[in-house]
Write a structure and sequence with these properties.
The radius of gyration is 16 Å and the shape is globular. It has one domain (2-213): 3-Layer(aba) Sandwich (Rossmann fold), CATH 3.40.50. It is an alpha/beta fold and 221 residues long. Strand 2, helix 4 and strand 3 (97-98) form a beta-alpha-beta unit. The chain is built from seven helices and eight strands, in the order αβααβαβαββαβαββ. The protein has helices at residues 2-11, 27-30, 45-62, 76-89, 115-122, 142-155, 169-179; strands at residues 18-22, 68-72, 97-98, 126-127, 132-133, 162-167, 201-205, 208-213. A six-stranded mixed sheet has the order 3-2-6-1-7-8. It has a two-stranded antiparallel ribbon with strand order 4-5.
């Protein structure tokens, strides 16, 4: 955890703001399926509308063609969300950088299954302390997520100025927790920022977070 604390301190000195966005609603979200690291679960019409709203908000805040480094998880839903936002901002989607360290929590044998089926078999899938998904018995742990997002932060510290990062519900909560220096959740062993609906954006500058757009999607991952 010392490495995460050190990096939280270092990010406060990064010259620029980080806009971290959660992708829009997908077909898995709409049917209450555990999506995890699944690569290609397309957006619903509601998900595209949420991406439109994010793009409009960022356009109003940053104007056209802002100096913005684009980053995305490699999943289809993140890249679809980014495509809509980039159109609003008049930026080249093809210029985006993709990194697997930004993917969602790996759900192991729970991945792709319905929430109801997993709950009937294993009990509640929500951690009571921070209201986030419990790891599957054979899935990725929160310290493992924290390690990979911290690795991404360390590798991209030299990014100039502002950047936009499109990712996922659980992994973005851990990234935001690391960047803002939150203490690890006692039940999960890693920092976890408050949850936000699909289609939301936060701005983090010098370790301080502000919600700049709250989406109208659900909270499930």
């Amino acid at each position: 955890m010392a490495a995460m604390a050190d990096h939280a301190t270092a990010t406060r000195n990064r010259p620029g703001r980080d806009f971290i966005a959660r992708h829009g609603e997908t077909v898995f979200n709409a049917t209450r399926r555990l999506q995890g690291e699944q690569l290609h679960t397309p957006l619903t019409r509601a998900g595209f509308a949420q991406a439109d709203a994010m793009g409009a908000r960022l356009r109003a805040l940053l104007g056209p063609r802002p100096a913005l480094t684009l980053w995305s998880s490699p999943t289809g839903r993140a890249l679809q969300t980014l495509a809509v936002i980039a159109e609003h901002l008049e930026l080249d989607w093809h210029a985006a950088q993709v990194d697997a360290r930004l993917v969602e929590i790996g759900m192991g044998s729970w991945g792709g299954r319905s929430y109801d089926a997993v709950i009937a078999e294993a009990g509640s899938v929500i951690d009571p302390e921070v209201r986030s998904l419990r790891p599957a018995p054979d899935g990725e742990t929160y310290p493992e997520i924290a390690a990979r997002v911290t690795s991404w932060l360390e590798a991209t510290d030299a990014d100039p100025g502002d950047r936009l990062v499109i990712m996922h519900g659980v992994s973005s909560r851990v990234l935001r927790g690391v960047m803002t220096g939150l203490a690890p959740a006692t039940t999960l062993g890693a920092p976890v920022a408050p949850g936000l609906p699909q289609g939301s954006i936060v701005r983090i500058a010098r370790g301080v977070e502000h919600v700049i757009h709250r989406g109208d999607g659900g909270g499930h991952a």
